[in-house]
């Protein structure tokens, strides 16, 4: 693999964005981001300046006030906001969540208002009003009312069902219970009743109902362990800790009821990782930060109970603030369909106007001079033409098909049920089916260009597994027996000899077990001992079983592996750690823990053995460990080769080493360590410097290899989606090395991929901006823009960029403006104009830079954005939507993905492993990433093809039906007389031609699901909008126009000079109408037969059933009996029976149908023979292609020493539990005064040091 950058970057270190950190939070103020002033500054000036700035910032930002146990405080006038005229409401949100749109009173008016905002619905309402005017109407009012009521009714029922489901979900969440202090006692209350300022009690495994300040808990020092899966998709536990003062004084119910603390803090925002505030209590102030806040959506774990004060409730909570705006999503076909309906409106008005002018002219030339046409009204020709204009609007109204919208909704609803019922997208392990949570976006699934995916919990299972290791230069982990013979089929290692084994580790190298049990190589036991002792894992016993809580899943996997191999971590205190070594318990004194951080990329522990020796054990990324090794390390090269092999297998690697420390050396170092630990300023930097002094001349033991388990089928899915020309971008908050490693594991990246990083593209974009600026002279507007590629075409490139670089490149980095500029306002018009121009230039530059970035990124085959915030994820999606006009899909599983999911055209939530926040905000949900290929390549493609066929046919059949009136106008004096019976016009779209087209829209498929998956290239027709566009629309209209001409003129010619068998002429108007109607129904129903690719009994029955239904209803409506009952409504008495008994008329109908359909059959035959599409070819050979080809993983191209890719060990993104362990705050003991605990710990620590 080649990389697009050198190992050393070309930028100065200080000027580069930091790849290791997540950039500033989304709502960060400029004051929080300001520079810290000049590097050289007098100490007193610096202190004065910092104090003043902190005070100003606090006053400005901390305006949210909370009073404990005092609800009336938050109802004071200063906290009320005017909502509507004189109606006021509190600025403090209630804790009830509301996602529904309607209630019992507002449903009917609001729903009707929303439906009549649709142009077509409003048009038909106006049409209905026009039909009620006697001078204008040419059709009975029921011809419009019946279809309109059906459309409105079906849409209203669908909206009602959706809203009832939202009501149920809201009710379920709002009616969850917790304990709240009321009247001095804890009482059970519903979540919706909780208010800001309430003191609540939560128990183990409870969801947190609001953002609360932790006051106390059942754990030592009021620690509280929380699972944040709902927020970030991570299952490893985080800890929060209460203030020492609240921990001491707020343990009992009466003290909590008497608590009257006052909090001033920041306003509600979406920063999940930051919080700023102050608690004022007992005439003292206590600073508050994010480590003391429990966020809504998290779950209490391993803590029996805890107490908290509600700070933000309901819509103000951080999880709700991160959910982004709920956008109304519509498909590309929806927008196109609306424009086409507007086009038809214009055509309708032009036709009506032309015919109205024709009628005015005819009246002037013929009507006024024909005494037998006199109707008793002396209206002018122009006035009659004006009335006829509205008459033709009514007659030709079926050009704009009212049933189109309701038919589209029915088809989408049916397609959604097919997704819900698909057993191949059902995940039995979690009993989770796929779920279409919206019914309006199905065909858009067949047009996706870009997929934006989260990593943790979406591509991966977030489960780490110990796979291999290298000890003393020897690789272990491949399947082999104790004789070193490799086998493809070998039994799993039996760990039953180890009483502490958890039985979860699947390992197949029996030779390693032999080495551990015999103890022939001391390094092997030393290796696993290091894993058991060098960590910050917490342990507790549940039902006699060891249960580990790690700050990162990697660390938990390593400690669990050591446990299975015979070195079990049993217990720890503030300064000791107990290990079971092959069944023998030994306790070691912990002298120091050198914790991990993102700069060090390693952690160490210094212990004193029971024999009195002092040793340092260290583990970390190979890049930092190799720099600190002793020159004489014999297995250095062998371990390097093993690391390359592990990296090629996309395993996460970690180096282990140790050193012996002399007593004198440790004593000297420990003095520096203690001094750095209490440094008043720059403590972290001082500690890192002291750590460097002891972490050198290390002896290499070996390396571990952990598998970050991908979900099943992820590489196969990504491979197939790539073949469908869908580009996949991974957006994650994880580290760069980890994200890159997963990219290789899921085959998004390969060894042949050239990887570009943030610093590389920054220089490319800078050069491009300079070139664009140089070209942007006087004649810039005259020169057409030329698309210049950033890279040589044909190269396989990928982009890996961090959130910090993203902000730098997209000019999103917030900078502090000087206070002088903040206070300076433009005084003159010239200053105002110059400032406005300057701002405009900056906006143009930013827009151009963003467009260039999107162009560059889209030239890459894959893009990985790591260390990005939720807002940045949404911003990247929005940039691609805006500048590429491409259809996007976002898929994720945590609350940090919600904004991205809502921003994309289609949002998919992964349900099962993590929380439900992403699922609740998504359009589609399922349990595994691999189901995405079936959702897009099968359901999406089918839905797109069905919808396109449906729309093309619908416009065709309506133009064929309606334009017969237009041709008839030339023979009736443009009088707006209809060519059909009124009831035929009413029922044409409702009964006679609706069912076949609905079934085609629901059931049709060009190739089977297996062939759709096997040939992903079939998907591109949707991406390129090939099946429904303006060209296809006008072809359908032209087809409809020609069909209407044939339908009118062939019967007209047949009727001109005709005598029937009985010697009578059948050429009356009513017989003519029946002939045209019969030919029309047979033609349009046979036409859909030609359009159908997938025949079933239901399709055939619907086509012939619709024709039979037409004749059955027509004979009924033309019977004498119904005419007697309703003489004014049914005037075609006996017409059908009289006309259709004439063979001549049947021959006319057959000729008309043949002339309409035979050219279509000929054109289809020629196109499939001469210009077959990809699906035509596959249909032709589908029997030969029945056997589905199995996907095979890409063969490895490993070349020894060629790969420099290795994932740094993925420690937790924050510090581990080292501070808690060394301070003793996390150790569970019998309740005793806090001072006594600290005193005992300090004394013990001093005795250890002095000895």
From TrEMBL:
Which residue numbers delimit the P-type ATPase C-terminal domain? Answer: 919-1173
In which domain of life is the source organism classified? Eukaryota
The UniProt entry, under InterPro entries, shows: ATPase_P-typ_cyto_dom_N, ATPase_P-typ_P_site, ATPase_P-typ_TM_dom_sf, ATPase_P-typ_transduc_dom_A_sf, ATPase_P-type_domA, HAD-like_sf, HAD_sf, P-type_ATPase_IV
Q: Name one GO biological process term.
A: Golgi organization
Location in the cell reads: Apical cell membrane; Cell membrane; Cell projection; Endoplasmic reticulum
Where along the chain is the active site annotated? 454
Q: Which family does it belong to?
A: Belongs to the cation transport ATPase (P-type) (TC 3.A.3) family. Type IV subfamily.
Q: What is this protein called?
A: Phospholipid-transporting ATPase
Source taxonomy = Eukaryota, Metazoa, Chordata, Craniata, Vertebrata
Gene that this sequence comes from: ATP8B1
């Amino acid at each position: 693999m080649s990389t697009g950058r050198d190992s050393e970057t070309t930028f100065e270190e200080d000027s580069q964005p930091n790849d290791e950190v997540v950039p500033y939070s989304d709502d960060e103020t400029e004051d929080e981001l300001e520079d810290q002033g000049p590097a050289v500054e007098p100490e007193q000036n610096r202190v004065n300046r910092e104090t003043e700035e902190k005070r100003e910032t606090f006053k400005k930002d901390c305006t949210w006030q909370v009073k404990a146990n005092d609800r009336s405080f938050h109802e004071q006038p200063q906290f009320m906001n005017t909502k509507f005229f004189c109606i006021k409401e509190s600025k403090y949100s209630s804790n009830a969540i509301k996602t529904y749109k309607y209630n019992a009173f507002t449903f009917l008016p609001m729903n009707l208002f929303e439906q009549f905002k649709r142009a077509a619905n409003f048009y038909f309402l106006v049409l209905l009003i026009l039909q009620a005017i006697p001078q204008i109407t040419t059709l009975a009012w029921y011809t419009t009312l019946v279809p309109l009521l059906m459309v409105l009714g079906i849409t209203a029922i669908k909206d009602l069902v959706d809203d009832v489901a939202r009501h149920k979900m809201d009710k379920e969440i709002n009616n969850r219970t917790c304990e709240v202090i009321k009247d001095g006692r804890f009482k059970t209350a519903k979540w919706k009743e909780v208010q800001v300022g309430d003191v609540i009690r939560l128990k183990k495994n409870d969801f947190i109902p609001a953002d609360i300040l932790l006051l106390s808990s059942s754990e030592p020092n009021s620690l509280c362990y929380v699972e944040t899966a709902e927020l970030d998709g991570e299952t490893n536990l985080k800890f929060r800790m209460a203030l020492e003062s609240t921990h001491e004084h707020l343990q009992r119910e009466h003290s909590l009821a008497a608590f009257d603390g006052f909090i001033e803090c920041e306003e509600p925002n979406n920063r999940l990782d930051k919080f700023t505030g102050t608690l004022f209590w007992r005439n003292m102030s206590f600073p508050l930060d994010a480590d003391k806040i429990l966020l809504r959506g998290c779950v209490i774990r391993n803590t029996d109970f805890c107490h908290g004060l509600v700070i933000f409730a309901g819509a103000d909570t951080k999880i709700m603030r991160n959910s982004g705006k709920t956008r109304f999503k519509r498909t590309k076909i929806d927008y196109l369909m609306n424009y086409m309906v507007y086009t038809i409106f214009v055509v309708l008005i032009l036709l009506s106007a032309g015919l109205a002018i024709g009628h005015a002219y005819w009246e002037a030339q013929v009507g006024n001079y024909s005494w037998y046409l006199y109707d008793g009204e002396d209206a002018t020709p122009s006035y009659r033409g004006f009335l006829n204009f509205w008459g033709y609007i009514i007659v030709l109204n079926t050009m704009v098909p009212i049933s189109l919208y309701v038919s589209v909704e029915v088809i989408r609803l049916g397609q959604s049920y097919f997704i819900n019922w698909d057993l191949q997208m059902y995940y039995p392990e979690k009993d989770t089916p796929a779920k279409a949570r919206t019914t309006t976006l199905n065909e858009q699934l067949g047009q996706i260009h870009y997929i934006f995916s989260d990593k943790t919990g979406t591509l991966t299972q977030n489960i780490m597994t110990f796979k291999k290791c290298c000890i003393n230069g020897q690789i272990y982990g491949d399947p082999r027996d104790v004789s070193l013979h490799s086998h493809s089929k070998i039994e799993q290692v039996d760990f039953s000899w180890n009483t502490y084994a958890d039985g979860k580790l699947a390992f197949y190298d029996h030779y390693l077990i032999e080495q551990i049990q015999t103890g022939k190589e001391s390094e092997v036991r030393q290796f696993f001992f290091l894993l058991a002792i060098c960590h910050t894992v917490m342990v507790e016993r549940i039902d006699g079983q060891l249960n580990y809580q790690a700050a990162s899943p990697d660390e938990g996997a390593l400690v669990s592996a050591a446990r299975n191999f015979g070195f079990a971590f049993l217990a720890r205190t503030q300064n000791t750690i107990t290990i079971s070594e092959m069944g023998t318990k030994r306790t070691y004194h912990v002298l120091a823990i050198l914790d991990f951080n993102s700069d060090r990329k390693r952690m160490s522990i210094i212990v004193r053995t029971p024999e009195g020796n002092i040793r340092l054990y260290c583990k970390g990324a190979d890049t930092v460990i190799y720099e600190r090794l002793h020159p004489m390390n014999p297995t250095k090269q062998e371990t390097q080769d093993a690391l390359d092999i592990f990296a090629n297998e996309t395993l996460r690697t970690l180096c282990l080493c140790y050193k012996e420390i002399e007593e004198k050396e440790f004593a000297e170092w420990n003095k520096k360590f203690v001094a750095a630990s209490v440094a008043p300023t720059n403590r972290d930097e001082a500690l890192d410097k002291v750590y460097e002094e002891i972490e050198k001349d290390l002896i290499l033991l070996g390396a571990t290899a952990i598998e970050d388990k991908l979900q099943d089928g992820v590489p196969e899915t990504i491979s197939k989606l790539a073949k469908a020309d869908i580009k996949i971008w991974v957006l994650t908050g994880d580290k760069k090395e980890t994200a890159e490693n997963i990219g290789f594991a899921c085959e998004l990246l390969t060894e042949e991929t050239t990887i570009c990083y943030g610093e590389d593209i920054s220089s490319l974009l800078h050069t491009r901006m300079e070139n664009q600026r140089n070209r942007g002279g006087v004649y810039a507007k005259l020169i057409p823009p030329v698309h210049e590629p950033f890279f040589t075409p044909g190269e396989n490139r990928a982009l890996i960029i961090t959130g910090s670089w993203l902000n730098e490149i997209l000019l999103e980095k917030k900078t502090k403006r000087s206070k002088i500029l903040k206070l300076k306002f433009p005084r003159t018009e010239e200053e105002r104009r110059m400032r406005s121009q300057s701002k405009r230039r900056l906006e143009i530059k930013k827009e151009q830079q963003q467009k260039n970035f999107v162009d560059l990124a889209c030239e890459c085959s894959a893009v990985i954005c790591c260390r990005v915030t939720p807002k940045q994820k949404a911003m990247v999606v929005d940039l691609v939507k805006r500048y590429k006009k491409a259809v996007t899909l976002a898929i994720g599983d945590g609350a940090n993905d919600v904004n991205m999911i809502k921003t994309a055209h289609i949002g998919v939530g992964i349900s099962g492993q993590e929380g439900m926040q992403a699922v609740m905000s998504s359009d589609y949900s399922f349990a595994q990433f691999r189901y995405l290929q079936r959702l897009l390549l099968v359901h999406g493609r089918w839905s797109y093809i069905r919808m396109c066929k449906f729309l093309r046919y619908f416009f065709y059949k309506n133009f064929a039906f309606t334009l017969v009136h237009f041709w008839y106008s030339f023979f009736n004096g443009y009088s707006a007389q209809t060519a059909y019976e009124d009831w035929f016009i009413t029922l044409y779209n409702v009964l006679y031609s609706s069912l076949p087209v609905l079934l085609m829209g629901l059931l049709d498929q060009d190739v089977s699901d297996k062939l759709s998956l096997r040939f992903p290239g079939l998907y591109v027709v949707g991406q390129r909008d090939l099946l429904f566009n303006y060209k296809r629309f006008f072809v359908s209209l032209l087809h409809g126009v020609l069909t209407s001409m044939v339908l009118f003129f062939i019967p007209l010619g047949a009727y001109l000079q005709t005598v029937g068998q009985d010697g009578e002429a059948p050429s009356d108007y009513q017989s003519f109408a029946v002939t045209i109607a019969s030919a029309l129904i047979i033609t349009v129903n046979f036409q859909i037969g030609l359009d159908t690719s997938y025949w079933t009994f239901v399709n055939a029955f619907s086509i012939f059933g619709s024709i039979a239904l037409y004749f059955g209803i027509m004979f009924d409506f033309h019977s004498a009996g119904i005419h007697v009952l309703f003489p004014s409504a049914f005037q075609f008495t006996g017409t059908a029976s009289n006309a259709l008994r004439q063979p001549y008329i049947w021959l006319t109908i057959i000729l008309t149908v043949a002339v309409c359909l035979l050219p279509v059959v000929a054109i289809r035959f020629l196109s499939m023979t001469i210009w077959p599409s990809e699906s035509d070819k596959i249909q032709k050979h589908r029997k030969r292609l029945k056997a589905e080809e199995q996907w095979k993983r890409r063969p490895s191209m490993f070349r020894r020493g060629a790969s420099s890719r290795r994932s740094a060990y993925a420690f937790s993104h924050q510090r581990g539990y080292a501070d808690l362990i060394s301070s003793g705050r996390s150790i569970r003991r019998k309740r005793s005064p806090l001072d006594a605990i600290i005193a005992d710990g300090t004394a013990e620590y001093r005795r250890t040091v002095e000895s």
